Every structure is written in C-alpha cells, then in structure tokens.
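A reminder from the course coordinator: this example appears on the midterm review sheet, so study it carefully.

Given structure:
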C-alpha cells in the first residue's frame, strides 16, 4: 500500500497524494529497503527513466541510501500519475543526506562538461 513519507499514513492503491501533507506517496517497500524511521526527502527530479537510474547509481556508489520514484502509472503506458508534474520521477534520500547527495549530483554533472 502507498504511504506518505511525511506522516507515514498508508493509503489505498489508487491514491497518489497525501491529502494532509500534500506530498506524493511512496509505494509500499519491503522492510529491508526502507527503515521505519527514515525521513525521505526529494533531492532532485529526473526527466526520464535512464537519467533516474544513472543518478541513483551515482548516489549509491557514494554509499547513500536512495529511492527512485516514478510518476508513471503502472500498466497505463507512460501516463503520468501526477498531472502537475512533467518529470518522469523523483530521487529521494534520507533528509540528513540531502546536501551530500546534491553535491554528488553536481560533481557528476560537472564531470560531463
């Protein structure tokens, strides 16, 4: 079941946004993947799946815990699940890792120049 990363409330499968916190819900993940006490924060949005997996790999190589969330709705052929977002998805890291993750992403983009 999807849950809110802020208030930790769980929702029905068809709900995409927490009505209380007004944030996108995260899918139900295995307990080994998400600690009960992690405060997930968006570190950046990605334009497509390839960019998402590349940046996730960059952050994981730095030892960071990373969650890549797609805005596409499963089984609907690329239809966005959040009408207000044009990006493919978001990359989440624990709140205490946001600055380090931003620095890693900047260093990666700088290396491409």
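Designed residues:
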């Amino acid at each position: 079941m999807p849950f809110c990363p802020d208030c930790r409330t769980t929702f029905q499968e068809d709900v995409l946004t927490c009505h209380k916190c007004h944030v996108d819900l995260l899918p139900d993940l295995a307990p080994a993947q998400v600690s009960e006490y992690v405060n997930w924060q968006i570190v950046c949005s990605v334009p497509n799946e390839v960019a998402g997996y590349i940046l996730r790999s960059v952050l994981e190589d730095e030892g960071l815990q990373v969650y890549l969330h797609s805005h596409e709705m499963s089984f609907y052929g690329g239809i966005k699940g959040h009408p207000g977002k044009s990006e493919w998805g978001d990359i989440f890291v624990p709140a205490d890792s946001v600055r380090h993750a931003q620095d890693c992403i900047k260093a990666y983009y700088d290396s491409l120049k």
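The first helix runs from residue 49 to 61. The two ends are 41 Å apart (CA to CA).
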